[in-house]
Amino acid sequence: MLLGLTPDDWTALRLSLKVAAVATLASLPLAIAVATVLARGRFWGKTALDALVHLPLVMPPVVTGYLLLLAFGRRGPVGAWLESTFGLVLSFRWTGAALACAVMGFPLMVRAIRLSIEAVDPRLVAASATLGARPAWSFATVTLPLAAPGILAGAILCFAKALGEFGATITFVSSIPGETRTLPSAIYAATQTPGGDATAMRLTLVAIAVSVLALVASEWLARRVRRGIGAAP
Is 46 helix (H, G, I), strand (E, B) or coil? Predict the structure, then answer.
């Protein structure tokens, strides 16, 4: 057993990484759009939208998972429609775990990206407009590159949150070995099993190692992005 991990441990680790990656990549475009609206938009209901985005941060994760089960379960309005239309089932599937992780990490991602977009000097965007650039082109060539460090930071925060997500995930998709049992739920299952202390400790060390690697990688990428922006003409 490489590194002392059992096949079940490797399955939980691979599943955690897959769920976290899918949750981050799938929610990134929407997070950029919402962050841009909150950073630059002036409209009625902005405060309500901001509160809705950050709601998963203040609600108990179990409540979030239960609401997802009501909406996206096989008997829920959205879940039933997805199954009948596309044959897509989210509840008690790894895709549902990715959805739960995305919902929990979304506020962190939006906040980081919003702060980065707000830090972009509007005069630079205005200058590109005077040169004939359309708003969408100005956003793609001026705002997004300058906000890249914040976008990267938001993605890393979402990924880290997804790796450690437990409450919403286990409520929505349970803890099915090989399907929805991520590292946090595997650790919890080990603590509930007689003689499972060694397994729990082993998986805990793996979770710490993965988190440290993610932080080191994020710092390295952030430095590369900042150097790239500084070197840009």
Answer: helix
Q: How far apart are CA 136 and CA 140, in angstroms?
A: 6
Cα Dmax for the chain? 70
60 vs 63: CA distance, rounded Å = 5
Structure-token match 């100005």, residue found = 138
By the 8 A CB rule, do 185 and 162 touch? Answer: no
pLDDT tens string 58-74: 999 999 999 999 999 98
- For residues 222-233, one letter each, b for 16 or more C-beta atoms within 10 angstroms of the residue's C-beta and e for the rest, the string is beebeeeeeeee
Tokens linked to 53 = 């985005």
Identify the CA nearest to 18 among candidates 107, 94, 104.
Answer: 94
Which DSSP helix (H) or strand (E) runs through 153? helix 148-164
Tell me the pLDDT tens digit for each residue of 33-48: 999 999 888 888 889 9
What is the C-alpha end-to-end distance of the chain, expressed in Å? 51
